[in-house]
Amino acid sequence: MRTATKARTLISPPKRSRIGDIRMRVVYRGLAVAAAVAAAAVAVVVVLPSEPDEVVAGPVTAPPAAQPSSGPSAPASPLASASVSSSVSSSVSSSASPSETVTPAAPAAQVTPTPGTSLAPGYTAMEALYADPRVPKLTAKVKRMRLPAPSRRVTRDRRSGLAVPKLPKPWKTYGPAPFTTRQVLPRPRAGAVRGMFVTCPLPIMEQKSPRDTALLAARWTLNHHPKGARITWLASQPVKRGWLLVYRVTYGKRSSRAAVVVVDGGMSKPGLAFVTVPDAQRKQWSDIARVASGVRVLG
């Protein structure tokens, strides 16, 4: 019996392995599913970008410019969409096409300075004038003045192309430098300031308008008045080939009457006639009108 049992055991077929029991099509299906899952995982890692630092740091203030692309645009990431406001999203979607041109933002408008403000480099001469608190705005309320008949006695300034009145005594001719002609009044006892009448080629930049040129010239004359001087307009009117301004200059408790006449004398620059008389010599204030009426082109 033991021999028969042993022989039966030896001739019994071997047991099949578990892998062999599984059909091949089932194995192929499992491999296909595993490959699909792995591909999906790789796609998720590639498609989902990390959230940009700008969105984390603060709100987006303006939509970025559209980037050129040779193919269709990729869909927006859910994380990025959740971080951007609805107004920015609508702006980006409207400019998503690479064929459209993105219009750059308009530059900030230049602010015109007002009187009393400080100036940055690059402002024009007229903007500097309007910002100078010593010179008020010249309005239409400033009227014209009556001018007497011009004087027959003249002083000729060939450098500026002007003929100007030769004023009577107590005026006298004086050394012209740094001007081209100069007449002065005697120095008063009450102070060092005295009357002065000078001519020279225009010492400032000529403007398109004779009136604007005269305004700049009047501002320039403050260099020849005491410190802290300020202007009050008394008269403004055109003259032949130029402009006339008459004004009061106040400095502390004292003041002067002054005038500038800018006339095109046919030279490379217009000619300037400038007269100023302090209140200590107010008897000669009437000579300012003589200057205003007597400046003309040198014939």
TrEMBL record:
<keyword id="KW-1133">Transmembrane helix</keyword>
<keyword id="KW-0472">Membrane</keyword>
<feature type="compositionally biased region" description="Low complexity">
    <location>
        <begin position="67"/>
        <end position="115"/>
    </location>
</feature>
<keyword id="KW-0812">Transmembrane</keyword>
<protein>
    <submittedName>
        <fullName>Uncharacterized protein</fullName>
    </submittedName>
</protein>
<feature type="transmembrane region" description="Helical">
    <location>
        <begin position="26"/>
        <end position="48"/>
    </location>
</feature>
<feature type="region of interest" description="Disordered">
    <location>
        <begin position="147"/>
        <end position="167"/>
    </location>
</feature>
<feature type="region of interest" description="Disordered">
    <location>
        <begin position="59"/>
        <end position="117"/>
    </location>
</feature>
